[in-house]
């Protein structure tokens, strides 16, 4: 889009002003001498702002790093506890299941021996029937003894409600895993927190590096002529804005 | 040399000495901040080692408990069978039961020791008090029982917290160094102003560092 199209250009009817006369040669050297200190105060203020920002972000970085370390420690702590709990569950479940298997085994054995005894009695084998009956009683006594040790019969949560029902094994397994699952959830949460804080800590380091570039630009600005000083100050401000923007994203994210 | 130049040179010398002092203080502050961070790491590491040791000891206690519990149950079940044979009225079974009592049960009961042998663990219904046995197993290793990972973690958190605040003090000291350097290299018009800012920030940083140190040492009961 050119200037004439938007109506802001020079009108053809306007008289062209005469070009500005060059300054007298005798006045030229005095101007740069007067302007060498120009904008220096502004650069100092910008540098001060940058140092304050660096201080704040360095503090945030330290905090994020400490939080990452704490979360890392917690995740390891919970991992050890989870592994211990799984070990305990394994031992307990093994004991409880073996007890249950012993009850079933002896109960079945007793039943079979009882049936055998009846069968032998029907065949007229009284001695054999007596022996089978004895084995039935022994197996039943052993099954009853094992029942006293079984959580599936002693704990009302799992015990069968009637003689036809079986113990609630699923409820037992669910209950057994509750603590381990809680510990695992804590471990996962801590591991996730570690990932987040570690990422934030790394990003803050990158922001600090960006702000260090701003320091460099302001340092250069102090040592060059006023026109370049403003240019470098502008670059420095852009870099600060980039750094602050990123820091805000990290802080909120 | 004019009086003004002499005064400027003297001020530059003073600033140079201040820079040296502040640099040294900042280096010491950075060392102390890192040392505190390192102590936090040490306490965390100790806590994790204690956790592993304690858990390993607990795991072994659980293993022993269920080993004894399994043998004790076997003993009780076998004994029930023997008693059934004894009360059956069958003379052959009675002899068999007597021999089982004589030769088999003593061998099993050895394996149950102490859960199956100590009346301290025997319950009224003929079973055993596993919780009491586990508590006794834990008490057998008082050194493991005394390990307190949470105490180490709490100490680590205290050191980390101190590190956070010391870091702020170190940053203030570094800031003051920056302003003093600016005062040394800057133009004469800004020198006194920047010098003043530098000195004020340095004093605030120093006071901050001192207060944080004293407070946290007091919280730790005098431990550095």
List the defining traits of the structure above.
heterodimer; A: 253 residues; mainly alpha; Helix Hairpins; 6 helices; 79% helix; 0% strand; rod-shaped; B: 224 residues; 85% helix
Written account of the structure:
- The complex is a heterodimer of chains A (253) and B (224).
- In chain A, 79% of the residues lie in helices and 0% in strands.
- Chain A has 253 residues and is mostly helical.
- Chain A has one domain (39-252): Orthogonal Bundle (Helix Hairpins), CATH 1.10.287.
- Chain A starts with 29 loop residues before the first helix and ends with a helix.
- Chain B is mainly alpha-helical and 224 residues long.
- Chain B has helices at 3-86, 91-112, 130-139, 142-146, 149-185, 188-219.
- In chain B, helix 1 (3-86) packs antiparallel against helix 2, helix 1 (3-86) packs across helix 3 and helix 5 runs antiparallel to helix 6 (188-219).
- The model of chain B has no long low-confidence stretch (mean pLDDT 92).
- Chains A and B meet through helix 2 and helix 3 of A and helix 1, helix 5 and helix 6 of B.
Low-confidence stretches of chain A: 1-33
Strand content of chain A: under 5%
Oligomer: heterodimer
Structurally, how many domains make up the residues of chain A? 1
Q: Mind telling me which CATH architecture of chain A this is?
A: Orthogonal Bundle
Biggest sheet overview of chain B: none
Relative strand content of chain B:
under 5%
In the predicted model, the low-confidence regions of chain B spanning at least 5 consecutive residues are none
């Amino acid at each position: 889009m050119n200037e004439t199209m938007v109506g802001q250009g020079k009108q053809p009817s306007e008289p062209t002003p005469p070009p500005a006369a060059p300054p007298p040669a005798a006045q030229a050297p005095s101007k740069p001498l007067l302007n060498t200190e120009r904008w220096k105060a502004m650069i100092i203020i910008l540098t001060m702002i940058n140092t304050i920002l660096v201080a704040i972000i360095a503090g945030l970085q330290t905090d994020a790093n400490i939080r990452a370390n704490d979360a890392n420690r917690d995740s390891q702590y919970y991992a050890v506890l989870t592994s211990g709990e799984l070990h305990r569950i394994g031992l307990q479940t093994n004991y409880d299941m073996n007890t249950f298997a012993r009850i079933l085994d002896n109960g079945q054995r007793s039943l079979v021996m009882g049936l055998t005894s009846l069968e032998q009695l029907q065949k007229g084998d009284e001695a054999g029937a007596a022996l089978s009956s004895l084995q039935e009683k022994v197996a039943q006594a052993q099954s009853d003894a094992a029942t006293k040790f079984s959580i599936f019969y002693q704990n009302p949560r799992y015990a069968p409600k009637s003689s036809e029902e079986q113990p609630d094994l699923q409820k037992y397994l669910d209950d057994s895993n509750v603590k381990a699952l809680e510990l695992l959830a804590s471990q996962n949460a801590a591991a996730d927190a570690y990932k987040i804080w570690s990422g934030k800590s790394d990003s803050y380091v990158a922001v600090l590096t960006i702000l260090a570039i701003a320091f460099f630009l302001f340092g250069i600005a102090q040592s060059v002529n006023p026109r370049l000083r403003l240019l470098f100050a502008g670059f420095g401000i852009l870099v600060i804005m980039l750094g602050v923007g990123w820091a805000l994203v990290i802080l909120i994210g | 040399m004019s009086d003004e130049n002499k005064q400027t040179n003297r001020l530059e010398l003073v600033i140079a000495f201040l820079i040296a002092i502040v640099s040294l203080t900042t280096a010491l502050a950075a060392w102390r901040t890192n040392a505190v961070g390192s102590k936090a790491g040490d306490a965390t590491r100790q806590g994790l080692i204690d956790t592993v040791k304690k858990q390993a000891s607990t795991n072994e206690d659980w293993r022993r408990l269920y080993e004894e519990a399994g043998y004790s149950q076997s003993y009780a079940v076998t004994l029930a069978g023997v008693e059934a044979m004894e009360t059956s009225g069958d003379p052959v079974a009675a002899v068999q039961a007597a021999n089982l009592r004589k030769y088999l049960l003593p061998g099993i009961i050895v394996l149950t020791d102490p859960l199956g042998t100590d009346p301290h663990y025997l319950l009224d219904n003929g079973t055993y008090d596993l919780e009491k046995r586990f508590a006794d197993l834990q008490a057998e290793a008082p050194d493991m029982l005394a390990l307190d990972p949470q105490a180490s973690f709490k100490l680590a958190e205290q050191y980390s917290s101190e590190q956070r605040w010391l870091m702020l003090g170190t940053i203030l000291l570094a800031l003051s160094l920056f302003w003093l350097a600016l005062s040394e290299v800057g133009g004469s018009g800004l020198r006194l102003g920047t010098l003043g800012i530098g000195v004020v920030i340095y004093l605030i940083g120093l006071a901050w560092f001192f207060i944080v140190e004293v407070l946290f040492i007091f919280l730790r009961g005098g431990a550095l």
